[in-house]
């Protein structure tokens, strides 16, 4: 029962358990540092992070380039933390944070040059429909970047593979779904320190 509650809170942190989970989220800095050069951003690009958590990556990235950073996360707790951190950038319009569900939110006429997500796909039962949505939200030649841990990591490290709590997948499976959604020039880049952890990039051509 506790494991299921913990998994639910990793997906949408709230309350006391959500505040405890924040401690784990702070350990993602190395992944965000490695992800940034893969964005290859240009001035005035529009960038979207799905599941921004504490908003630290958006805070760091927005200080490095003259782009507009959007973030969407449906956790009210994460939204409040991220807004507090990014409040000055929000005032200038460089950062736009949304507390909403990516599946249903209406972005109206906004198209992005890049969409990225870190450790999010484990919470999605159907990744194809989300990938199709990302594809539709990208400009021509826009890219998506997905950071994920391959299911083989859990097997090699004797970690529990509990599909009832998370949807663990291989990089091959994710790449196949990306191809089905229309992405081209797909590439996998391995984490510099952790084996079986990958950044997967794909383009809308």
CATH class value: Alpha Beta
Radius of gyration: 16 Å
Proportion of strand residues: 15-25%
- Oligomeric organization of the protein chains: single chain
- How much helix is in the residues? 40-55%
The biggest beta sheet reads: 7 strands, mixed
What is the total tally of β strands? 7
- Secondary-structure element string: HHHEHEHHEEHEHHEE
Number of domains: 1
Number of helices: 9
The overall pLDDT, averaged over residues, is 86
- The 3D shape can be described as globular
CATH superfamily: Vaccinia Virus protein VP39
Please give the order of strands in the largest beta sheet.
3-2-1-4-5-7-6
The CATH architecture can be named as 3-Layer(aba) Sandwich
Q: N- to C-terminal separation? A: 45 Å
CATH topology: Rossmann fold
Q: Structural class, from secondary structure content? A: alpha/beta
Poorly predicted sequence stretches spanning 5 or more consecutive residues:
1-11, 13-26
Task: List its traits.
9 helices, Rossmann fold, alpha/beta, seven-stranded mixed β-sheet, disordered N terminus
Describe the 3D structure:
Helix 7 packs across helix 9. The chain has a seven-stranded mixed beta sheet, with helices on both faces. The protein has helices at residues 2-11, 15-25, 29-39, 56-62, 76-85, 87-92, 127-137, 151-156, 171-181, and strands at residues 46-50, 68-73, 95-99, 112-118, 138-149, 184-190, 197-203. 31% of the residues are buried. With 205 residues, the chain is α/β, with parallel strands linked by helices. A hairpin with a 6-residue loop joins strand 6 (184-190) and strand 7.
